[in-house]
Design brief:
By secondary structure, this protein is α/β, with parallel strands linked by helices. The protein folds into 2 domains: about 5-205, 2-enoyl-CoA Hydratase, Chain A, domain 1 (Alpha-Beta Complex); about 210-255, Orthogonal Bundle (Lyase 2-enoyl-coa Hydratase, Chain  A, domain 2). Helices cover about 45% and strands about 15% of the residues. The chain has helices at about 30-45, 65-70, 80-90, 95-100, 115-125, 150-160, 160-170, 175-180, 195-205, 210-225, 230-245, 245-255, and strands at about 5-10, 15-20, 50-55, 105-110, 115, 125-130, 135, 175, 185-190. The strands form 2 sheets. A 6-stranded mixed β-sheet has the order 1-2-3-4-6-9, with helices on both faces. The protein has a 3-stranded mixed β-sheet with strand order 5-7-8. Helix 5 crosses helix 6 (about 150-160), helix 6 crosses helix 7 (about 160-170) and helix 10 (about 210-225) runs antiparallel to helix 11 (about 230-245). The radius of gyration is 19 Å and the shape is globular.
Length: about 270
């Protein structure tokens, strides 16, 4: 990896930091997008990982796309319409396909402005905790473009279609408290305690069996676009898998013995 993403792991919790603070963690190059794909593949292969926290270095979570590149017709703005389409397909559109579909529960720790694609990345995460300094904007229309990184699909599923339309059609920013009021974030905390709060939430999740966490998230994701009957069928299959884990047996024993379980990830 080129170093856009810093990867830290402790006690089953991965903290992933977008690390271009001088550029406000803007997403400008294809290699940055592909780092997300590589990291998600790494986490999928590692059964010890239980939770992912995503945040940004410096004062911003992510400023989204690089406006100067748009002006200069570089990066995603370079070439013919077909070349621009392919640049999106092969670049930034790989992030939602990797991050949103990750089986491990994900938390966005929004430390500052999350603008355009930056806001959409927060919606790719399962849970969002915001610093009081965070602001959010689906600002694509202000630049005469559309949200081409999954935002049109993600935002309405996060805040509802009416509010998503208002945000997308005005392009106006909202602060952290309004983001909480509309359900975009679950909690607003003092800036200095953001990572502590995000990690505390991650730890509340990580005390549970690793395999069951992944199965539970996948069941919820699949249930969003299938019938009740199909969801029940998937749930029965996942439950059969869960029943045959050693952590299930340990959870039952610990419950009956009134003690804290000791999970192994098996």
């Amino acid at each position: 990896m080129s170093g856009f993403l810093l990867y830290e792991e402790s006690e089953g919790i991965v903290t992933l930091t977008m690390n271009r603070p001088e550029e406000r963690n803007a997403l400008t190059e294809e290699h940055q997008m592909l780092e997300f794909v590589e990291v998600c593949a790494r986490i999928k292969r590692d059964p010890s990982v239980k939770v992912l926290i995503l945040t940004g270095a410096g004062t911003a979570f992510s400023a989204g796309g690089n406006v100067k590149s748009m002006r200069d017709k570089k990066g995603f703005s370079a070439g013919s319409p077909v070349e621009i389409r392919d640049a999106y397909r092969n670049g930034i559109q790989q992030i939602p396909l990797a991050l949103y579909e990750l089986d491990v529960p994900t938390i966005a720790a929004v430390n500052g402005p999350a603008i355009g694609a930056g806001m959409d990345i927060t919606c790719m995460c399962d849970l969002r905790v915001a610093s009081e300094r965070a602001i959010f904007a689906s600002s694509f229309v202000k630049l005469g473009i559309v949200p081409a990184d999954g935002g049109a699909w993600l935002l309405s599923r996060t805040v509802g279609q009416t509010k998503a339309l208002e945000m997308m059609l005005t392009g106006e920013a909202i602060d952290a408290n309004e983001a909480r009021a509309i359900g975009l974030v679950t909690k607003v905390v003092p800036h200095e305690s953001l990572m502590q709060e995000a990690r505390a939430l991650a730890q509340r999740i990580a005390v549970n069996p690793a395999r069951t966490l992944r199965l539970s998230k996948r069941l919820l994701r699949e249930s969003q676009h299938v019938s009740l009957a199909t969801s029940l069928e998937i749930a029965a299959a996942y439950q059969a898998l869960a029943h045959y884990t050693k952590d299930h047996d340990e959870a039952v024993r610990a419950f009956l013995e009134k003690r804290k379980p000791e999970f192994t990830g098996q």
